[in-house]
Amino acid sequence: MSVLYPRLLGDAARELHRQYQHAPIAELQERHSLRHPSAVFAATGGRRVTAEELQRLRDDILVVAARAGFPDESRRQDRMTFDVEVAQLLHQRCGLVAAEASVRPMWAFLALVLLPDVSYWRYPRPPGDRVLGTDITRHVWGRLWWRAHLLALPQVHERYRLLETFGEAAFDQMYARRKSIGGSRALVRAIADVWPAVDRGRISERAMLIDVLKRLSRWGAVVDFESLDDDELRRQVLEAVTESAVLLGAQAQDAGPRHRRA
Fold first, then answer.
1. Which residue in 99, 102, 212, 260 has the fewest CB atoms around it within 10 Å?
2. DSSP 3-state assignment of 5?
């Protein structure tokens, strides 16, 4: 049974974002709340989250944020560590099933009501999709839950060890391809598991990943990745990586002499 969270609907969410976008963090620390008069719950589908659970979630996220420098400015590495720790925390604590985690107004409530200070600290003066929930792949909290959900391993031991494989930009490349790549947890986990051992040479990670994902997307038209066992799935991913490395390496070699002659 899923835990149901309050949902902050469009007009109310947009008004709060308008008020908060340029507000100092100290002010936002005073504006957080466990409820909002415009928030609603789903009528069915689970049990409602309690005020105590919401407070505990906020407290725990604040502890992680403080380690990353909150409420002051933080370093890029600290923000990356914060994302990994909070992704695991949200996935473990929220009690969500995927259907409830797909509800965008729920994430708007967390960003704008429960955690406005941390939300606007993590993304100062953010565009609306970072807090409104219009695009979960961009949402300050929603993207982290889904990152953990797709990468969490079935076994309890080191369940979240793959979370650190990719940063936000790289993971977005997979999740943006929800129909061909991001919709398969097994395939996403296989890519993340194989990736640290990939020898890219002088090829950038972004270029390599995009080419591998395009290749796997094409193969997905004739290969049912979900039906493959772990070893065969890894073999498929390694084959895609190998072909991409050969192609991109050859392109880089061809481009080199022309650049020097120019």
1. 260
2. coil
Query: In the chain, which residues have pLDDT < 70?
Result: 178, 255-262
How buried is 52 (Cβ within 10 angstroms: 0-12 exposed, 13-18 middle, 19+ buried)?
A: exposed
Q: Which residue type sits at 262?
A: A
pLDDT of residue 252: 78
CB pairs under 8 A, 24+ apart, for 65-73? 65/118, 65/121, 65/122, 70/25, 70/118, 70/121, 71/25, 71/26, 71/29, 71/117, 71/121
Please give the pLDDT value at position 59.
98
Residue in the block written with tokens 């991409």: 244
Query: How high is the pLDDT of residue 255?
Result: 67
- State how far the Cα of 191 lies from the Cα of 174, in Å rounded to an integer: 10
